[in-house]
Fold this protein.
Amino acid sequence: MTQYGYFDNDRREYVITNPRTPVKWINYIGTLAFGGFVDHTGGAALCKGDPANNRITWYVPQRPVTDFQATTLYVRTPAHKGYRVFSPFFVPTLDNPDMFECHVGLGYSRVVSEMHGLRVDATIFVPVGGSQEIRRIAITNVSDAPADVDVIPVVDYSHPEAIKQFNNNDWVPQTMVSRARTDAVGRTTLTQYPFMHRETRVNVLTTNLPVSSFETDRDRFLGYGGWACPEALQIRELSNHQAHRGQNIGALMHRLKVLAPGETRLLITHLGQYGSLDAAQPSIDLYRDPVAVDAALRELEGGWDTYLSNLLVDTPDPAMNAMLNIHNPRQCHTTLNWSRYLSRYQVGLGARGLGMRDSSQDVMAVVAGAPDEAKSLLKKLLRVQRPNGCGMHQFYPLTMEAVVGDAAEGEGRPDFYGDDHLWLVLAVTAYLKETGDLDLLTERLPFYDKDRGPIASGSVFEHLGRALDFTWTHTGTHGLPLLGFADWNDTMNLREGAQSLFNAFLFGFALREMITLMQHLGAGDAGAEYESWYAEMQRRVNTQAWDEAIGGGTWYLRYFDSDGSPIGSKLNEKGRIYLNAQSWAVMSGFAPPERAIQALDAARDYLNTANGLKVGAPGYDGFDPNKGGITTYPPGTKENCGIFLHTNPWMMIAESMVGRGERAHEYYSQINPANRNDRIDEFEVEPYVYCQNILADEHPQFGLGRNSWLTGTASWAYQAGTQYILGVRPTYAGLESIPASRRRGMDSV
Ligand code: GLC
């Protein structure tokens, strides 16, 4: 049983104390406007505005954990022959630290380590609204002898078009350029850009201290020593080479001279992107001042105070408190910013931008803490809705270009996702209930045409109406909503004509939200039409999709395939029961009370494990082109009946709605990552954030977590914990507070 760290709730940090975590554990700094993630060994993936189209550092998550990742700090001291060179961040030199702490904080990471008689205390962050990553690095001689110390921060650049850095080794290296400028007191600023961006987008690396030499060409720096032992660091000075091409880096040699025992020096590094070096100068000057850096850190902290102060819980469950007060809302803020775009798993090379489905759900959890950001993202999402009401699946934030995702792939494939647009209704109404900002409904926003970009506009209210119309008018042979290319389960890609119960339930949920809104607005008649749609869809579901008469299961089916055959029925050999069909049947209010209990109990009997509820069972065992992506995974993995964590909070919500608060809390606790801190070897990923998936019991590595951070689990675990288990929920009439344990029955949406 290994522990790699502990929760320090007073400082709102998780502290990693052993650098040899099973996989890299990361933290986010800044926002999508400028920022990225920093791993616990100091490597940082940074971009400005868009990881695919404006990447700054070359971080490659697929590299082994021991490899250099885009940014580090070398320290060197004279040795018998040449120099002893080591990194206080552990990677890439892998010297064993005498002590190591990586404080995973709110918007900053602080690495404190001691090795070879030196203590380095480095705080890495992006100032609020800033275009620069700042590292405040205090170096202290903790030995009892004087130490002659050099420190060398290093950055490895990416071409801004992140994918080209990998797939074009002809054009890219011929375009990359670096320049150096040294001021009167010896402080050097390195600039780096691809030639075409010389006047528009310049990366800047500089520090607060004089520099004795620099390097900008990776191969000159490394020679055959590699990142663990760069040859250039065995020579007194770097070559002062200004790269005209090649793989560009920035390396700055600082000779701190002799530090007496106990003496500390402060180095501040600044890696930013600006229109030009001149434009950068005020920021460069500012962040050379330690007082300004400390003030920026305090401002960052203040922003988090505000964001987190909206709701504080105090329950008898300490792990729940730690998550709901700190780490979970913090993760929600991260998903709001990055959607599923940049992490160690979703590598931000352009295959995904921001998704309509994902971001809509992300918004729902931050409407109280970050209403302005929520609103601005909502408006972007509404702008990529198509005129017929369905959604463009993804968009790229820098260009606002939107795409249909995998939907238009191949002949006979539907060109829409059956659920995307419905999430807009949930997100907008969540925002309205929290803020009361009803003016949003009359704001006019354009629709998006996949061939012509933004086109004729409609009010936000009209956007929502068209979303509901689309589903109402796109039904299949059972009168149930078409699946489209996929629903929430992206990987079940049935043939054209298949119908999705998930879409039916989501439609029901969205209709209820719309009806409640219209009642609040006093628009009775239109609400009546939606009520009739609701009743009719409820009837269709309950007369056709309850498995008892089909396969004998006491649960809801998940799909009707294009030939009308059921999926998620006791009849099926594989994929016999699916979690979402049960939770959402209850969440939508479609399930009558008796069936609601039966469905939830069936889900518990067939799908619950000690590591969370599986998304379905049993898993498909072999590739089936008529099912698509789901069958590319072995059984027990991801959507193929793995523990897809995103779906677990929906069961917590459903159980809360039927008044079974204990069960809801049990489901909450069994996936709470904070409860895994002492069994991480099996789980592997960070204990301070939710991950997207855990391998289920059909897989030999049952319990292994993957794809941490950017997952809808964050938003829904927060909503389930606060609004349902604890029962504190915004309504148009004000805040309502009914804990799950005091709910009586089904009328509690
Ligand atoms: C991923 C996608 C999300 C989808 C889920 C299930 O998390 O980002 O959109 O709903 O997988 O397929």
